[in-house]
Amino acid sequence: MILRLTALLVLGLSLSACATPDRFEWGGYENQLYRYHKNPENRDDYRRALENAIARGQETNRVAPGLNAELGYLAYESGDTATAQRYFEAEMRLFPESRAFLQRLTSGEPLETPINESSDDMSEETDAVAEVPTS
After folding, report:
1. Which of 68, 84, 94, 115 has the most CB atoms less than 10 A away?
2. Cβ–Cβ under 8 Å, residues 56 and 67
3. What is the largest distance, in Å, between two alpha-carbon atoms of the chain?
4. Cα 121 to Cα 110, 114, 126, distances in angstroms
5. C-alpha–C-alpha distance, residues 11 and 50, integer Å
6. Distances 17 to 10, 12, 20, 32 between C-alpha atoms, Å
7. Which of 10-24, 86-100, 113-127 has the lowest mean pLDDT?
8. Sign of the CA dihedral running 70, 71, 76, 82
9. Is 42 exposed, middle or buried (CB count within 10 Å of its CB: 0-12, 13-18, 19+)?
10. CA distances from 94 to 11, 13, 28, 39, 42 (A)
11. What is the rounded distance in angstroms from the CA atom of residue 12 to the CA atom of residue 29?
C-alpha cells in the first residue's frame, strides 16, 4: 500500500514538473477577442484589454506577439495613424519578422491580389498544361 502511494506521489510530482510557464503574457486576449468579435461595440473594452496585456507583458519582458500590431490596427481603423505607427514600430522591434507585413499594411497596397486580376495569367498556364502530349 505504501509502495503504491509513493509511486502515485512520484508520478504526480513528475507530471507537474513538466508543466512549463507561459512564454508570453496574453492577458486574456482570446476571451476579449471573442467578446469583441461577437459585439463590435465593445471596441473600447477590447482596446483596454490589449493595453493591459501589453503593460503586464512589459513588466516581465513577455509581450505576446501580435498584441502591439492588433492595438495599432485598432488605432489605424480609427484614423489615428500616428498612434498606429507607434504600436507597429513596437511590434517590429519585438518581432522583426512582422516588419514586411506591417509595412505593407500601412503602404496602402492590397494585402491579397484579387482573383479577377490574376485570372488571365492562370488561363494561359492552364492552356499550357492542357497541351502536354500524352503517349
Report:
1. 68
2. no
3. 78
4. 19, 13, 9
5. 39
6. 11, 9, 8, 30
7. 113-127
8. negative
9. middle
10. 39, 35, 20, 30, 28
11. 31
Distance CA 105, CA 29 (A): 22
Cell 496574453: give the residue.
26
Total residue count of the chain as it appears in this document: 135
CA distance linking residue 70 with residue 3, whole number of Å: 53
Structure pTM? 0.67
The pLDDT tens digits for 15-44 are 555 556 678 999 889 999 999 999 999 999
Return d(Cα 91, Cα 72) in angstroms, integer: 9
Per-residue pLDDT, averaged over 92-120, amounts to 76
Helices (H), 2-98: 2-17, 29-38, 43-59, 67-77, 81-94
